[in-house]
Amino acid sequence: FLTSHDPHFKFLLEFAWPKRKPDWLRGFPLYIKRLIILQIDECKPESLWQKFQLTPKQLKNHFEIFFKENKQAKSAVLISSNIRHYSGLAFDYILDTLYCNAAFTDDDLMNDLLAVLSKNNLIFKADDLVAQRGTIVLCVMLLMHQSQFEFGGVSCGECIIYSFPSGELIESEVPVKFNLGDFETLDVMGIVPATRYEGLKEVSFKTSYPIFTTNLLAIDNCDTSLFVVEEVPEQPGFYRKRIAFDQPLGLKNSKLAPLHPQTKEIDTIPTQ
């Protein structure tokens, strides 16, 4: 997983954030070729056809045929003057939005679990196991939560449980209440620290990748003690809703909950 996502990370650092585009005529890093092949598979075929009258297979063929690799220099360059103008535009289009799918999903997890149990001739009731799907998925997520990994041998990343907000979570009035649609599903994200230059200034930041995605809604699978409201430091009088995943977690009544509950009660807001 980490190796397959390395070109995404490098491209963000070297091209996307500095707002540079690969120079197809003069040459570009070889890893971008690999990245484009990965990205073509993630693009919707109908979108490619509508914009460029090319199928994913045709676009891949263009890229393989019309570009010459220099493996020693780790670069590639356009070698044919006959390449369709739309192909170059298509490559730019593909790189404008980086798609990054998760390494596996909760469906993959359950299918593989059932397959392994069957392959090993273990006696079990599939229906009973599937009925515990939510708890099984949460346990796997907890095993991954706050675990660390090496990224490309040069940086140390961390896995965290996360749920993306569905909309605006800052309000100016109290009491602030959590609504059913505030957060989406529970996922495990890989967080990698990095640096980039803005002029001569070095800027530190973190980038994230989906590792494990699920169909479990955060609102249904998190203990109420995880839902917190806090004042926004930059905006006095405004309050922010968030889920406190930035701590060790465990299971409480088959829901995610703080592993070490704080002695001081956290402000919690009941769901509507």
What does the model show?
It is a single chain. β10 (227-231) and β11 (239-243) form a beta hairpin. The strands form 4 sheets. Strands 4-9-8-6-5 form a 5-stranded mixed β-sheet. A 3-stranded antiparallel β-sheet has the order 1-3-2. A 3-stranded antiparallel β-sheet has the order 7-11-10, with no helix packed on it. The model is unreliable at 263-272 (pLDDT under 50). It is globular and about 65 Å long. α1 (2-16) packs across α2 and α2 runs antiparallel to α4. The two termini are 38 Å apart. The longest helix has 15 residues, at 2-16. It folds into 2 domains: 2-96, no CATH class; 104-258, no CATH class. It has helices at residues 2-16, 30-42, 45-52, 56-66, 85-96, 106-119, 126-131, 133-144, 218-221; strands at 28-29, 67-70, 75-78, 104-105, 148-151, 155-162, 170-171, 185-198, 201-217, 227-231, 239-243, 249-252, 255-258. By secondary structure, it is of the alpha+beta class. The chain has 9 helices and 13 strands. 35% of the residues lie in helices and 28% in strands.
List the helices and strands and how they pair.
Elements: H1 2-16, E1 28-29, H2 30-42, H3 45-52, H4 56-66, E2 67-70, E3 75-78, H5 85-96, E4 104-105, H6 106-119, H7 126-131, H8 133-144, E5 148-151, E6 155-162, E7 170-171, E8 185-198, E9 201-217, H9 218-221, E10 227-231, E11 239-243, E12 249-252, E13 255-258
Parallel strand pairs: 4-9
Antiparallel strand pairs: 1-3, 2-3, 5-6, 6-8, 7-11, 8-9, 10-11, 12-13
Helix pairs in contact: 1-2, 2-4
